[in-house]
Design goal:
About 65% of the residues lie in helices and about 10% in strands. It has about 600 residues and is of the alpha/beta class. Its main location: membrane.
Amino acid sequence: MRKMLSEKLPSEKLGQIKDTFSTSFRLLKLIWSVDHWLFIGTFASAIIPAIIPFINIYIYKLVIDLVVLAVSTDTAFDPSKLYSLIGFRVATYFIQEVAFRTQGFLERLYWTKFPIYLNHIVFKKVSGLDMQYFENSKFRDLLEKVRDSSAWKPQQLVDHIFMGLQSLVQLLIAFAAIARLNWFLVILVASVAIPEFINQTRQSKVSWGVWSQNSPLRKRFWYLSGLLQHSWTIKEVKIFRLAEKFLDELKSIQTKFYKDTAKIAKQNYLLNLVFNGLSTAVFIGVEVFVIFEALAKRITIGDINFYTGVVSNFQNGLGGLFRNMSGIFENSLYVKSIFEVLDTEPAIKMNEKAVKVEFKNPPKIEFKNVDFAYPETDKRILKNFSLTINPGEKVALVGENGAGKTTLMKLLARFYDVTAGEILIDGINIKDLDLDSWYKYFGVLFQDFNKYEHTAKENIGFGRTHENVELKEIIGAAGQAGAHSMIEKFDAGYEQMLGKTFEGGVDLSGGQWQKIALARAFLRNAPVLVLDEPTAAIDARAEAEIFNKVERLSKNKTVIIISHRFSTVRNADKIYVVENGRVVESGSHKELMKTDGQYAALFKIQAKGYQ
């Protein structure tokens, strides 16, 4: 077993190196695409500081040798040469400082500009992914990693790459200079730097492992933080005295983070002390060697300073290279998560010859022998399900929670593909439809509708965001949903900011938010209108008024209502009772009551509650 593991390690390390290189290269390509000149300027300003110190210490060597020569011999001293050397040395300091300042300036520009681009492409990618990804805990963990790392890890990775290149240039120049003096010195310095690099890489892997393993805990942390901060959660938290429980859990999560981090930090600290001690010993040893070489008159007095500086730069360059390589490796693990999201392929594949539909009238909708199980599960939500909805028909789906009613609407919106069977829209398989064109004819109010903290006008206008919608149309939709009288009472009317997150916003009740969402669905004016629990938070009188308007305004529309309220569905042309993924009863309200089956029993139970 041990032999098998040892044989596997080289391939694993090779894979890690390959991943690190690939991630780093892709990030640099992204940055290059944002601004070529900023990239070149940042690169140049990072390399110049690697070269200048060698020029500087060489000039200083010449100065020392010039002074020693003048003091120890009767040779006439030429001050102009000394002044020139000092002038060159001043120039090197100036160029070095300009390079540092330029690097800081360009990096500030870059890391203001690049995150805008990165956030845009990540959000665009995420918004284009299918529903199943957002209902998958592993993918949500991946998004959590991206949220934690996207703001600063790319910058750290690029900084390490540029600083690594700076260290490499510094190392190569120093290597050439030291090798001329004595090859053994190169080996001596490297003997300390290489183990340090191996240690840094190991520390990076350990840090990544802790960060990756704790991703679900970080997700839990932000969830609990939200419970203690949001207006729609804090009321119940206060009443049930849940704050202390959540605070204890938050503290335990943070304590675990601290213990994991402290353990790694302690190990790193002790090992770094050891390597710092070894580095100091090597530096002093090289310095002594150079002094004895000068005493033996094999090098000049100026060379003592020069080679001491070169060795210091060699040591710094080698250590810096390894440290930056370790930093590249560590940060690439985090940045890799960003590219994993960007590389995620949609599960719903569009047909290359997708049909763009244009319906003058509502289409015929057919579910034919549909089976469906959610990804990564074996439980079938729908089983050989068949249902036909004729153009302009008002149908209702009723049944207990988990029966599959909302799943049907997700399939009709093609958030998921059926496991077996097919869904036909005017005889065309939904998989062959162009979804953008299909969604134009598809209006929906989901049970878990969004509460957009925008103005009332924008909230409703989102129903037709790709069109120039006039205010009178928005007012009309609000009137249909019973929201107009409510909006008129706001201080700013239709310009009123909704929600309490932003300044000047007003909070709404659940029923008021539902009227806004219903108005958004009505504004869409689509031939197919799906209402999933459309009046769950609305009082009985408002519900009756809304559905009278729905009946009156949707004569030429197909309306699909999902509801637990039987008063809501009784006027539908046809009611389907769904149980365990199948239609067990169907008919009008009158027909189903006459049958005296499951629908009638449930209706009587609800009716009794109103008596």
